[in-house]
Structure to design on (73 residues):
């Protein structure tokens, strides 16, 4: 699934990453609980009651995650 206008909905991103949308919601909640000092998952934005992920942030997060996997080996 491709994003609409460079923004991903949680459902679209969950489908891309083959996970449940609730996992993304849990990551957002964990980030809020830590007062944004330790971020879990990619950056997200709220527009009214709608959560969206910027395509550039998603791709950067994917690249950083890939780099972390290589460094862990």
């Amino acid at each position: 699934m491709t994003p609409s206008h460079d923004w991903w909905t949680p459902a679209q991103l969950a489908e891309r990453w083959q996970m449940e949308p609730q996992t993304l919601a849990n990551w957002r909640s964990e980030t809020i609980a830590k007062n944004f000092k330790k971020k879990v998952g990619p950056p997200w934005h709220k527009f009214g009651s709608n959560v969206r992920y910027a395509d550039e942030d998603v791709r950067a997060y994917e690249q950083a995650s890939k780099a972390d996997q290589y460094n862990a080996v």
About this structure: The first helix runs from residue 10 to 16. Helices lie at 10-16, 21-33, 55-72.
